[in-house]
Structure formats: C-alpha cells, structure tokens
Amino acid sequence: MRKLIAVIIITCFSLVAFSQSQEAQQLLLNWEKLTQFKKMLKDMYAGYKIVYKGYTTIKDISESNFDLHKDFLDGLLEVSPAVKKYKRIADIITYQLRIVKEYKAAFNQFKQDKNFTPEEIKYVGKVYGNLLDESLKCLDELSMVITAGKLRMSDDERLQAIDGIYNEIIEQFSFLQDFNNGTAVLSVQREKDMQDIDISRKLYDIRE
Asked: Is the pTM of this model over 0.85?
C-alpha cells in the first residue's frame, strides 16, 4: 500500500513538474515572440523614418523647384525695355497706317472710275476689307507680344515674333501696292480700248 501511495505521489510530482516545464517553455516561446515583434516594430519605425525623411526631402525639393519654375514663368510675362524699344515695332505701326491711307485713297479713286462696273467695285471693296482685317490682326498680335502679363516669352522669342509680324505687314503692304497698280493699269487699258473703239467708229462712220 505504501508503495502504491509513493508511486502516486511521485507520479503527481512528475505531472506537476512536466506541467510547469510546459508552461515555462510556453512563456519562453511567448517572450521570444514578443522580442521578435518589438524588433519588427523597431525596424518598421526606422524604415518609416527613412521613407518620411525621403518624402519630406523630395517634397521640399519639388516645392522649391516649383517656386523657381513659377518665378521663371512669371519673369517671362515681363517685357524688357530692349523689346519695347525695338525699331520694328514702330515700323509695323507705320506700315499699317500706310495700308489704311493708301487703300482709302485708291478705293475712292476706283469708285469714281467709269471703267469699272458696280460688281467690280464691290469686289475691290472686299479685297480692301480683307486686307484691312489682316493688318489689324498684326497689330493685335504685336500688342500681345509687347504687353506685360499677356504671353510667357523670352526676349529672343518676343523679338522673333515681332520680326514675323513685321514680315507679314510688309507682305500685306506689297500686295496692296500690286493690287492698286494692277487695278489702275486695267482702268487705263479699258480707257484706251474705249478710245480705240470711238476712233474706229468715227473712221468708219459707225453709229450705234
């Protein structure tokens, strides 16, 4: 009987010891997991700081570049004195005034010319009207180029644009002169033809 009791007691102690050993192992395992988790959190936080620092740096650089870019673009809205004093600006305005003056004088003369029909005078008026519209567009373009706050252009780009407008107004003025000369020659030719017809009628005593 005593032996049985001793066996039971030993068995109980063994079970208790085994149970305590399992608990100790579980606690150790939990502690290791907690330690690993803390390390993971620490690594994650370190990584976050690196990412945040990088993002902040990039953000600062981007904002700085944007400010520089904005300052550059705003500067392009300004017109320098060198551009405003460019000689061809005055030349463009002068040629536009000459276009208006010469087309009006020629048109008044052609409207009184008996060698042209009303339909032909109407056509001549349309040509002058279109030419005037195109010359006024040149002045609008010029105004945009030399007015601050209108276009973002460098000085070189503004000067090139002015040169382009100048060449265009020159072409318009040349066209006007050619058109006026051609129309005047047509009038003279028709007048001569009428005189020749009158002479022929008188020579051959032809009556209408």
From this structure: no
